């Protein structure tokens, strides 16, 4: 995939202090959260963690992409939800990596249509485009 110039519509800005055991805040004050490693990684688990923030962003973005492709397909996705499960772990060659399972519940379409909409949304979602070829992403229908 070649990198194409992008027409930036807006820019989100957030700053992290003290890495995985600190605080993350957006420049507009709408996001201000304590981050701590989860208990599974030796942290207190009292705050949120980067993987939860990534899951929140990916699920919201993917739901938006689903809406775009559903409108084009004239499919009713009212009442739908997208859940992102983000896994964090060690890579065989060293370092750490992520994997994502996206699961959608789309009550007003049949399973075949839901799967097709998910595949189409995966092609237009900015998070999917950013992660494609970098992390494992699986799609599922609930």
UniProtKB/TrEMBL annotation:
SUPFAM superfamilies: OsmC-like. It comes from the Bacteria. Signal peptide: none annotated. GO terms for biological process: response to oxidative stress. It holds the Pfam family OsmC. NCBIfam families: organ_hyd_perox (TIGR03561). Belongs to the OsmC/Ohr family. This is Organic hydroperoxide resistance protein. It comes from Streptomyces bathyalis.
């Amino acid at each position: 995939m070649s990198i194409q110039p992008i027409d930036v519509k807006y820019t989100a800005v957030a700053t992290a202090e003290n890495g995985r055991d600190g605080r993350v805040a957006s420049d507009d004050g709408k996001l201000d959260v304590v981050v701590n490693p989860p208990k599974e990684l030796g942290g207190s688990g009292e705050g949120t963690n980067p993987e939860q923030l990534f899951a929140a962003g990916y699920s919201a973005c993917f739901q938006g992409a689903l809406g775009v492709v559903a409108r084009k397909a004239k499919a009713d996705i009212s009442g739908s939800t997208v859940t992102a499960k983000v896994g964090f772990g060690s890579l065989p060659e060293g370092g750490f990596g992520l994997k994502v399972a996206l699961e959608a519940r789309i009550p007003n379409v049949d399973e075949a249509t839901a799967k097709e909409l998910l595949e189409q949304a995966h092609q237009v979602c900015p998070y999917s485009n950013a992660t494609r070829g970098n992390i494992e992403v699986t799609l599922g229908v609930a």
